[in-house]
Amino acid sequence: MSQIEVTPVETAELTAEPSEPEALHVHTGSRVTLEDQYGDELEVTLTADGGIDSVSPQSPVGKAVFGAAVGDLVTVLAPRGSWTARILSVS
């Protein structure tokens, strides 16, 4: 008959890691740096209310970046015309 070794729950370790950490995707509260097609950089914070240096998820920039990840190319559908940008960083 073989023996089975049992490890108490208190000493067990979880070794699985998420395949893509949530921090890499833009969500409410994220600080996002974008680079537009002309090489200009824009840094905004995605907040529920918008405000100075921030955008709401309902704004054109907010809609374009919400859920996107670093390196993604997004299209901003602004009232005065569309423009594209690459997401450089998310924190």
Architecture overview:
This protein is mostly beta strands and 91 residues long. It has a single domain, classed as Chitinase A, domain 3 (Roll), CATH 3.10.50. Helices cover 7% and strands 33% of the residues. A hairpin with a 2-residue loop joins β4 (73-78) and β5 (81-90). Residues 14-19 have low confidence and may be disordered.
Order of the strands making up the biggest sheet: 3-2-1-5-4
Number of self-contained structural domains: 1
State the helical fraction: under 10%
CATH architecture: Roll
Largest sheet: 5 strands, mixed
Unreliable stretches covering 5 or more consecutive residues: 14-19
Could you spell the SSE succession in H and E letters?
A: EEEHEE
Number of strands: 5
Q: Averaged pLDDT, please?
A: 83
Radius of gyration, in Å, reads: 20 Å
The CA-CA distance between the termini, in Å, is 55 Å
What top-tier CATH class fits best? Answer: Alpha Beta
Treating each run of at least 4 consecutive H or I residues as one helix, how many helices?
Answer: 1
By CATH's scheme, which homologous superfamily applies? Transcription elongation factor, GreA/GreB, C-terminal domain
Q: What percentage of amino acids are in beta strands? A: 25-35%
- Helical/strand content category: mainly beta
CATH topology: Chitinase A, domain 3
Tell me the overall shape.
Answer: globular
